[in-house]
Structures are given as structure tokens and as C-alpha cells.
């Protein structure tokens, strides 16, 4: 299976501003609702670590790298990420994973 066919997993560490957590969550949930309608999106969950409520994690799986690239081109993602800039303490840390 070449890279274009392989499932792609993502873990995104998100640090919302403490004074704007409700706005950040609303924005992320809106982006998630749109994302899960995409044919290439297998799942996407916003999760909160039990030991650190001030840092969130978005757990994502796409059918392929190409599907994720298409996801990143969606207007609601581009616009949503611009909105998020003001709602986060620092840029999100994105890690890509391959299935073993």
C-alpha cells in the first residue's frame, strides 16, 4: 500500500486561551461538524485530558493523506483556523501518524 492509500491519523494538541475557552470550543466543534461530513474523514473527536482541562486534543483519522490534504483546503477549515488564532494560547501542535 503506498502513501496515498494509507490511512492517516492525527493528534492535534490545542491550548485554548483560558479566558476564551467557550469560544474556542464552539469554533472547534463547528469545524468538527463540517469535517465529519467529508467522505475522507473517518473520525474526528475533540477530547480533554483528565489531568489537564486547559489543554485539548483533536483525534482524527482520514482515509489517506490526499483526503486530509483535501480537508485542509476546505473554506471552513481555512477560515476557522484564522478565527482560532485569537482563541489559542499558542499555535496547535499537529502530529501525523501511520498505521502499523
Q: Which characteristics define this entry?
A:
100 residues, alpha+beta, Alpha-Beta Plaits, 4-stranded antiparallel sheet, 4 strands, 34% helix, globular
Main pleated sheet: 4 strands, antiparallel
Q: How many domain regions? A: 1
The number of helical elements comes to 3
Ends apart, CA distance between termini: 12 Å
Query: Which architecture per CATH?
Result: 2-Layer Sandwich
Q: On the 0-100 scale, what is the average pLDDT? A: 95
Radius of gyration (Å): 14 Å
Uncertain regions spanning at least 5 consecutive residues: none
Structural class of the helix and strand makeup? alpha+beta
The best one-word shape is globular
Q: Which band does the percent of strand residues land in?
A: 25-35%
Read across the widest sheet, the strand sequence of neighbours is 2-3-1-4
**CATH fold category name:** Alpha-Beta Plaits
Extended strand count: 4
Q: What helical percentage do the residues reach?
A: 25-40%
Output the CATH class name: Alpha Beta
List SSEs in N-to-C order: EHEEHHE
Task: Set down the secondary structure blueprint.
Blueprint: E1 8-14, H1 21-35, E2 41-47, E3 56-62, H2 65-72, H3 75-85, E4 93-98
Antiparallel strand pairs: 1-3, 1-4, 2-3
Helix pairs in contact: 1-3
Amino acid at each position: 500500500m503506498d502513501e496515498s492509500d494509507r490511512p492517516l491519523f492525527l493528534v492535534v494538541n490545542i491550548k485554548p486561551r483560558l479566558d476564551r475557552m467557550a469560544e474556542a470550543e464552539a469554533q472547534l466543534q463547528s469545524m468538527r461538524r463540517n469535517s465529519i461530513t467529508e467522505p475522507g474523514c473517518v473520525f474526528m473527536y475533540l477530547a480533554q485530558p483528565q489531568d489537564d482541562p486547559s489543554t485539548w486534543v483533536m483525534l482524527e483519522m482520514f482515509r489517506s493523506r490526499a483526503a486530509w490534504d483535501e480537508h485542509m483546503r476546505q473554506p471552513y477549515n481555512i477560515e476557522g483556523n484564522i478565527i482560532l488564532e485569537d482563541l489559542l494560547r499558542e499555535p496547535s501542535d499537529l502530529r501525523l501518524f501511520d498505521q502499523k
